[in-house]
């Protein structure tokens, strides 16, 4: 039962336990097949940015959920919010340990934008509530619970550079992935993930072979540049602004540009954080109606 599920200016930083829900960036996303149940098989190189949503958790007399942030209003009244689902599923697992809690979500990332916002929020809820409730789950049980919430939730729970395969549940850490200066840009237009997959020209594409690329060049940027996002061409058909964003990032000095997830967020990798900040400022000046954010990604040795 939830006593309050509304927008609030209550700050997540005021809470007893806080968790960052970092933006998930698909540096590469290869669609390699499709299971009989309809789920697509993927090879993904994933990293996480130092920007994202923030969640706070406090003991309460009754369950409460409040929202703030630039994109909080878009979630108001969403009874199926992944934060609430994560809370309820975890409570089923731990029983009496799970006292009532006030959860506050500061929603800084655009909704349904291909950077794992909802999945990262769910993963941060699991981490935060386990800390607040003073409990933990066996790794296998936690992995099953996270996957129940969504294919991206297990990797968002890790929140570190990784390769994810299958539907996202087979995770391998990438400890030598460096940090990157990056600009994220989104035209604030929704993209239907099912429609993107429906429009895929091929669903049995070549797998991700990072080790081969790295052994040939020894350079991460070259290896990432040789990879791809198979969902980008169909997403561009649905939202032409994705191609425009890529062109604008390149014009402002991006070394690599690509769409993340099923879109519509695109990223550009820059040589320095100063270059990324200057490019973000220029893009924001040109398109103040878009979401634009300079950020830095986590290194594998974080």
Automatic annotation (TrEMBL):
Name of the protein in question: 4-diphosphocytidyl-2-C-methyl-D-erythritol kinase
Pathway recorded for this protein: Isoprenoid biosynthesis; isopentenyl diphosphate biosynthesis via DXP pathway; isopentenyl diphosphate from 1-deoxy-D-xylulose 5-phosphate: step 3/6
GO biological process terms, semicolon-separated: isopentenyl diphosphate biosynthetic process, methylerythritol 4-phosphate pathway; terpenoid biosynthetic process
Catalytic residues of the enzyme: 24, 152
Main EC class the enzyme belongs to: transferase
Entry binding sites for ATP: 110-120
Function: Catalyzes the phosphorylation of the position 2 hydroxy group of 4-diphosphocytidyl-2C-methyl-D-erythritol.
One function term, GO molecular function aspect: ATP binding
């Amino acid at each position: 039962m939830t006593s309050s599920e509304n927008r609030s200016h209550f700050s997540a930083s005021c809470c007893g336990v806080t968790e960052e829900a970092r933006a998930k960036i698909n540096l590469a996303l290869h669609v390699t097949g499709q299971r009989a149940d309809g789920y697509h098989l993927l090879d993904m190189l994933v990293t996480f940015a130092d920007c994202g949503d923030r969640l706070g958790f406090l003991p309460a007399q009754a369950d409460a959920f409040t929202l703030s942030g630039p994109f909080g209003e878009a979630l108001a009244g969403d009874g199926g919010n992944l934060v609430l689902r994560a809370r309820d599923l975890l409570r089923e697992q731990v029983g009496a340990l799970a006292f009532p809690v006030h959860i506050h979500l500061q929603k800084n990332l655009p909704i349904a934008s291909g950077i794992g916002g909802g999945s990262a929020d769910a993963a941060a809820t699991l981490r935060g509530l386990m800390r607040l409730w003073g409990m933990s789950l066996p790794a296998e049980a936690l992995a099953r619970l996270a996957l129940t919430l969504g294919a991206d939730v297990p990797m968002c729970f890790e929140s570190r550079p990784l390769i994810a395969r299958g539907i996202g549940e087979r995770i391998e850490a990438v400890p030598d992935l460096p940090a990157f200066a990056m600009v994220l840009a989104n035209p604030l237009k929704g993209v239907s993930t099912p429609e993107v997959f429906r429009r895929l020209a091929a669903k049995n594409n070549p797998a991700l072979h990072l080790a081969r690329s790295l052994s040939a060049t020894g350079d991460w940027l070259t290896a990432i540049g040789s990879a791809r996002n198979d969902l980008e061409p169909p997403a561009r058909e649905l939202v032409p602004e994705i191609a425009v964003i890529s062109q604008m990032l390149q014009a402002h000095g991006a070394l690599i540009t690509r769409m993340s997830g099923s879109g519509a967020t695109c990223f550009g990798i820059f040589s320095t954080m100063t270059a990324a900040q200057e490019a973000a400022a220029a893009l924001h000046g040109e398109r103040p109606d878009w979401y634009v954010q300079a950020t830095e990604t986590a290194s594998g040795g974080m």
